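Notebook entry, structure prediction.
Reason for the run: the old model in the group folder had no record of what sequence produced it. Starting over properly, with the input documented here first.
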Amino acid sequence: MIWAGQAEEFRATRRAVANAKLKSYRDECWRLAILARRGVVQKQAAIDLLYELATAHALVRALGEDRIQAILDEAFADADFRPMHSEVA
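New structure, fully documented this time:
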């Protein structure tokens, strides 16, 4: 027996969780991009981790590879990255 409105409420819950994941993912993309610009983390390692997380949390499946790539491209668009502190001699 399906209660009246249950399907709609469950759909709203799924949408809210997906949106929260996407917002958190974008926030972390920008946070790591800023850290990469400052030379705290390596740019490619950060991008690799973020893509791995997008895959693990079904964002790639839900949004598609192109959308995830666009989010990464937007956050990491600034080409003026400093080298890692450990690489500076």
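Summary: The CA atoms of residues 36 and 43 lie 5 Å apart.
The old model has been moved to the deprecated folder.
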